[in-house]
Amino acid sequence: MTDSWWKKAVVYQIYPRSFADSDGDGMGDLRGVINHLDHLAELGVDVLWLSPIYPSPQDDNGYDISDYQGIEPMFGDLATFDELLAGAHDRGMKLIMDLVVNHSSDEHAWFEESRSSIDSPKRDWYWWRPARDGMEPGAPGAEPTNWGSVFGGPAWEFDQKTGEYYLHLFSRKQPDLNWENDEVRQAVYAMMRWWLDRGVDGFRMDVINMISKVLPLPDGRLAAGSAYADGSAGFIGGPRLHEFLQEMYREVFAGREEMLTVGEMPGVTVDEAKLHTDPDRHEVDMVFQFDHVWADRGPDPWLLQRLQLTNLKAILGRWQAGLAEVGWNSLYWNNHDQPRVVSRYGDDSAEHRAASAKMLGTVLHLHRGTPYVYQGEELGMTNYPFGGIEDFRDIEALGQYKQALELEGRTPDEVLKVLRARGRDNARTPMQWDSSPQAGFSTGTPWLAVNPNYPQINAAEQRADPDSVFHYYRQLIALRHAEPAVAEGDFTMLLPHDERLYAFTRRLGDTELLVIGNFSGETAPAEIDDAAGWAGAELVLTNLPGASSQALTLAPWQAVVYRRK
Ligand code: TEU
Q1: Closest approach atom of ligand 1 to CA 266
Q2: Which of 264, 337, 378, 512 is catalytic?
Q3: What is the number of the ligand 1 atom nearest to the C-alpha of 60?
Q4: Most exposed residue of 13, 79, 192, 451, measured as fewest CB within 10 angstroms of its CB?
Q5: Where are the domains of the chain?
């Protein structure tokens, strides 16, 4: 889109079921979001992204949609939604919706019709296939391909009624829509236009790089010790993906220049992302890539691997360089699928939590790209102290646990260790508003337990404390708005081999910024070539003002941003 207002914007992600509960049923809702719009306006964010609020059986917390043009009753109704949209717009914030169209719910009318018979006019709207040649339909191993589902078990569900299987890359309640079918695509575009006509400002597109499948659907590679194959070569960045996104642009976005579109693309490469985000190609404004949140993942999914800072820098540096001239990056540490970054790449101990949360925010927000803040990140919220599997609610955690134990010979201990550190429920515990019971999230019993650290970590306390993570995030966001070099400047990575310091410069015209973050609990000198040239530069921002007397030697978890002209 030609008007790139989103280059200086910051997006805030709301996970509605965990944000604020206005009616005491333990589940967040739209009225709860309305009640807290001032918190978001005070933070200074430009755009709100709402995770799915459509009618849904909630098998995957709303990423299984049974009606694309309505509101889930437990979240509210369309009138409340319109009020929320107006409330955001009144405060100068835009609002984007989650678009989940790789799959629908199995309870969507489209799928119910599709599964009703082999001759249904909507049969071809989903991926129906017979059993593997010569095998008994429904028998173990007779699935049309050997693909595993992301949430454990096979990616195919046998349907008794018609004797065929349907594809579900995620849960069996999330059948994949068949984007080869023109009617499917037109139905999706019509639905998108309906929301835009209602006033929404764009979409975050769920796993949008999986909508085009390789034909015929190919078997995947089966790794030693896994029950099912990784089929991703058959559906990530498939042959018609660019064509579909360009068609969507023409059918939905052309002529609506103020929109924001961000495609969630697990496994996308830099080269592909450059094509997707080249403004002249009219696909999407930016993509979510995953390389930097997979940086602490080894070949064995059930073995925790520590982050190597040099690896993180190599990854993000590659993305910065790759999209420097053409295209645009999105920047995130957190979302509803990731553990809390302060617990993951920082230090969530009482001593270093606030400093490391601020340092991580600094490094991210000073990159070139559009930063995303996930609810609670602006407070430095941490992972939850999960015990056994009964503490988890996430379908991914439960499904993967079952598969690992039942089919892959893993022990509960080794799997739980990884789920506690990396599981998605870490991000999904209720937002911590104040120190009243249930952190002010709900007067009832929250659907997922509140983190017991809420008396120490909550919004009310941080809004009143000028040194809090909240006020530091305010400053970061304000800096992007005020300093063009943050939004527009070029990016140069420094110290690629340093295991403690993350350092880079940004330059726009005569203005140059130097950003350094200490990813360690040790004091660390930044041995950059041009150290002398930075003596006397203006210290624009630091998370540890008392520690900054020694220029370019950083205290544990310190971050500094210098500016010179
Ligand atoms: O997630 C896509 C995705 O790839 C996830 O599988 C993610 O990588 C993984 O869960 C990390 O542990 C999107 C949504 O963000 C997620 O919440 C949904 O469950 C999923 O799509 C299906 O809609």
Answers
A1: 4
A2: 264
A3: 19
A4: 79
A5: 10-104+186-382+392-470, 109-167, 486-564
Asked if residue 546 has pLDDT above 90, the reply is no
Average pLDDT along the chain: 97
- Give the per-residue SS3 of 207-254: CHHHCCCCCCCCCCECCCCCCCEECHHHCCCCCCHHHHHHHHHHHHHC
Is ipTM beyond 0.90?
yes
Segment 262-287 shows an average pLDDT of 98
Phi-psi sector, 207: left (phi>0), alpha (psi -120 to 50), beta: left
Query: Catalytic pick from 206, 283, 377, 512?
Result: 206
CA dist 565 and 523 (Å) reads: 28
pLDDT of res. 118: 98
CATH C-level class of 486-564 = mainly beta
Q: Are 512 and 540 in contact (CB under 8 A)?
A: no
CA of 461 to the centre of ligand 1 (A): 32
d(CA 192, CA 182): 15
Nearest to residue 403, comparing CAs of 192, 179, 148? 148
- Whole-number pLDDT of residue 549: 57
This prediction has a pTM of 0.98
Please name the residue ranges forming H helices in 22-147.
30-35, 37-43, 78-90, 109-116
Q: Is 264 a catalytic residue?
A: yes
DSSP label of 480: H
pLDDT value of position 547: 81
Architecture of domain 10-104+186-382+392-470: Alpha-Beta Barrel (3.20)
What architecture is the 109-167 domain classified under in CATH?
Answer: Alpha-Beta Complex (3.90)
Cα of 335 from ligand 1 centre, angstroms: 10
Distance, CA 337 to ligand 1 centroid (Å)? 6
- List, in sequence order, every residue forming a beta bridge with 370; answer none if it has no partner: 330
The best mutation among 103, 150, 268, 302 to test binding of ligand 1, ranked by most ligand atoms within 8 Å of the C-beta, falls on 150
